[in-house]
Write a structure and sequence with these properties.
Elements lengths: L1 E4 L5 E3 L7 H21 L9 H32 L1
Helix pairs in contact: 1-2
Length: 83
């Protein structure tokens, strides 16, 4: 698998270790999904701690989940354009 050019101008090639693009996309997608679930559990006082802390932590987790989801989407679009 070629991922681009390094500082020497040569293409960087990674060995295909039996992973396809769906498997490479599944791990961060599952992590983002878990972050979204946790982000909605925290404000509902399911995460333990003080209520105000759960409310604030939930909103921070929503922000992190948004960033992760957007990065996954951008990487997927970039992968589609390069094929």
């Amino acid at each position: 698998m070629t991922i681009g050019k390094g500082s020497t101008g040569r293409a960087i090639t990674l060995p295909a270790a039996g992973c396809d693009s769906a498997a490479l996309l599944a791990l961060p997608a599952l992590a983002a999904l878990a972050t979204w679930v946790w982000a909605f559990v925290l404000p509902a006082d399911g995460g333990g701690g003080v209520a105000n802390g759960g409310f604030t932590a939930g909103h921070v987790m929503i922000g992190l989940a948004l960033v992760c989801t957007c990065l996954i989407g951008l990487q997927h679009l970039r992968q589609i354009q390069n094929t």
